[in-house]
Model the fold of this input.
Amino acid sequence: MSDLDPVERERYARHLVLPEVGDEGQRRLRAGRVLIVGAGGLGSPAALYLVAAGVGHVAIADGDRVDRSNLQRQVLHTEADLGRPKTASARDALAARNPHVQVEELGRLDATNAPATVARFDVVVDGSDNFATRYLLSDACVAAGRPYVFGAVHRFQGQLAVLGLAGGPCYRCLHPEPPPPGLYANCAEAGVLGVLPGVIGTLQAAEALKLLLGLGQPLDRRMLVYDALAGTFDELALERDPACPACGDAPRPEALVLPAESCAPPPISAAALRDRLAGGSPPLLVDVRTAAEYARGHLPAALLLPVDELESRLAELRGRGPLVVYCEVGGRSARAAALLRAAGFVAVADLAGGYLAWRAAGGAVAR
Ligand SMILES: [Zn+2]
Done:
């Protein structure tokens, strides 16, 4: 590792005077590689502090765009970033903070790319807000032998733990079964006090720095629980489950199933859609059936965009506000809604029962 140059010595002076960090520790941070998943409420402070601290390579994985409702807590982004990919907004903010750090932009992680991606990093900081991503990252960290810095926030409470360390639990040990669909407690739709992810994301950065420096006691086999209303930090003991399919004594990779669409809201009913269309800012209706079906009759003002063409025509929908997709009976539209959410559209609903339910409910029809 090369010596720190004079500018680095000046920038990191307050680290260098700590005997526990010093010159060697700072060079260790410079050689460090951290993957932050999610450039949102947790990922924002985590990334800001890790970059400020001089972690040499920080990657941000996120498939979303900046939305005004993010700004209450996602302090990496500003009003000027609305509509931009979050990774681009994050990269600009982080590069301005510390030009010595390499910031890598990554898209959304899934089962096909997560294992190889995670293996390229020393530490993974999870700033996601859904169960599927947590299982995905935890499994990839166990497989690659990387620490998984878990954080979560809900309303006025936050949780933090370092999982996947040798002998310690992984995320599946804590949650062997995903929560039932319909329980969206950790998803984007739930409320959270804006500062709360700031507290937990900052603590995630502290754990990542400790791991890179080999300092102190990681939050291993314990969960820190912060209650902002009570003003308390509590600690829960965590244990590895020897029968865990990921980290147990006899791993069963075939049992590592990811919960599907844990954050997807339930479909909208025909009656609820009629109310929304009559309201002040009606959603854009997207008919994902075939052109022939559309010609036989469709919802007034609906845009025809057959599900098979959706992926190649996403640009036509960007920036057009909330979307409601429908098909004939509800199957294709559920697929379309999942595809749109995966492509970063945040306000997407699909019509329960499709065009037939709409007609049965007496909804207006155009031809
Ligand atoms: Zn486990």
